[in-house]
Protein 1
Amino acid sequence: MKKHFIYYLIFSVILFPAIMSCSDSDGDDNDNPGGGDSNNGTSTLSLNPTTLEFAPKDDGKTFKITTNGDWVITMDASVDWVKLSALKGNGNADVTVTPDENETFSVRSAVLTVKVSTISRKLTVRQEAAPTDPDDPFSTDYLLLKNIPNSAGEQIVAYKMFSTGDAATYDAYTWRLKGSNDGEEWTIVDERAEQSFFARYQEQFYIIETPGEFTQYRLEAIAQYAKTTPRLGEVVLYSQNPVAAWESFGYPVVEYIAESAVAESTGGKQFRSVVQDPVEFMKYHTQKVAEILYYLPGDQMPAVSKVNYKLESWTGSSVADKSGAPPTIQIRFNAKYIGEFSGGKTVQAIVHEMRGVLYHELTHGYQFEPKNCGSYDGSSVYWTFIEGLADAVRADAGLFDNQVQNRKDSSKDSKKWMAGYRTTGYFIQWMKTKDKDAIRKFNRTAKDLETWTWDAAVKAVFPTYTGVEQLWNEYYKEINK
Ligand SMILES: [Zn+2]
């Protein structure tokens, strides 16, 4: 006992800095995994062994708990592949750990915590990945084959792939693109391993590593799980790099913040089922919004360098809001709203809404602000520009439902272009039917006009018009014919 005690003292001193920096500060004695007598009052606890290794398909294995007290085993709620013969008991015991078959192509591990009174010990469970043929991981019955003709008739240099609305576990995970001219001899032009899509119905672009001249292409893909055929949306081939013009866009740093109670709420879970990686999701949309508001990434625009992306929960009908001003803005999403909105909706409708809200809120980060025309008060000229342009960008991204009927209805709004939100937004977006750069030019008027008015802005974008009234009348007629 004395020897043990001295050992424990030395061990504690060595590990002291580590304990101090450990965030798990609930008083647990975690610094001696599986170890022996810890001199904690009268309770004792040790585990043997402290690591269990499993093959992808394996029988249960047993570890020993040696204790003089009541013990409880816990593990992270996300671990659903480990079964235990007992979760609690008293005194010495053998506990059997049985893993499900690992059908993923990744090694996985879980940590079990055994507690007696205030002492806790940890046991690590580790399981090998599902086997692949080392010579050819694509030799599986669960291969996805997609033939894509080269309709461009030119050399293909890039491609775009869409995820589906199914669970992310069905996504294509590792793939190769092959080209051929006779349908018999195939040449690999691009290979990608362990990819992930950051949202449902998400487009992702890939530049082909070794392009060649081919008349047809074939994509071969496997999923993350060995016994699953991947599901993939549309694959589009490009003979020119479609993302080249915006490659130099400076993404902001994005921090995603969600307290666990919000993350675990109905809306929080719903959000994460359609958005697997909120940081990438936000970054993607910052660029998409900038593309609508500006010609090129080098254009003068508000320098948004940081976005705090918060999932919160509040009562009321508001979906989201934006606060702060560049360089740092904050965008909050209402998890409570997402939960209520999502009931009975398709994945497509939910992700549509998530994107639409982001287009709107991010416009507030990237738009210019009009000068000398009031404040954000729900009725001023300033306010109509701010909210109208945000909904115009959302409409331009195609993210309002039932657009034709909504446009007709909103065009009859008695406040006309001064109504804000959709009524104003649809009007601004319609201007693109007269000039494809109308939204960009309209946004730019906020920077250029010393005193911003609707008449001055319309005349700046459409020099032959007398003012906003004339343009609105034309819009009204066209929408209602
Ligand atoms: Zn807004």
Protein 2
Amino acid sequence: MNQKFTEKEVSPLSSMEEWEDDLLKRYPDPEESAKTKEEYRNYVDSERVDTVREFYRLNHTYQTYDFVKEKRADFLKFDKREMSLWEAVDFLNTLVDDSDPDTSLDQLQHLLQTSEAIRADGHPDWFVLTGFMHDMGKVLCLFGEPQWAVVGDTFPVGCQHSDKIVYPEFFAANPDSTDERYNTKYGIYEPNCGLDNVRMSWGHDEYLYQMMKDYLPEPALYMIRYHSFYSQHRENAYSHLMTEHDHKMFEWVNKFNPYDLYSKVPVPPDAKALRPYYEDLVAKYLPSTLKF
Ligand SMILES: [Fe+2]
Ligand SMILES: [Fe+2]
């Protein structure tokens, strides 16, 4: 594994935020003024871009079909830890990068900003809950997983990598790209076989989906499972693997995405004041402890 990146893992969230900032650069808020976009461009200095490129180089090189299989076999046993959702939130927040307090928004704040924006728009409570927990799968980082196996755009494995995926050139180093089982348009899949039959690159999305699949309505599960699948929900690159039903459910994924990307507000939400509301909401849908 690349040394530069291993060293950076002492403060993983700074890089996770860099991934998220990069998403904003790729998909800027259409409602933002040109001036803000300009400020943003200045903010994304070349050093950050290099870190993000390196992140994707690792992600695209090592996320193979076999890697995903291995990670699923390990993490989908859910034998690592048992916690309430609140303990998991606290656990996740231990990762806050304090080297850059001005830009680091802790994970709880990102979750609350997302969910409060959903709530303000009058959406159903399960949608609010989905916003509140959509990134809980990032606890994978606390189990020692490298960032490229936790965050980043997700994409199907077992078939050809679309050139609509960010930094597609890095897939040249992925062994699946030269494996004839996996490097054709459909690879191991049938046309329109449905996304439930498609293995996605491993990360916080699939992990949390598997944890939540018995508890939340189907649109919520799609939002959790595919919120980082930008090459589909933004670029429409994998429709050939999807069913009509997938497309219908992706309307929810699309509805969710702006809340994830564009909900940063100048005044951070008051986590303490909001906690009772979210405690009730969590208790309505989820058991008191969850297996991680
Ligand atoms: Fe996420
Ligand atoms: Fe997020």
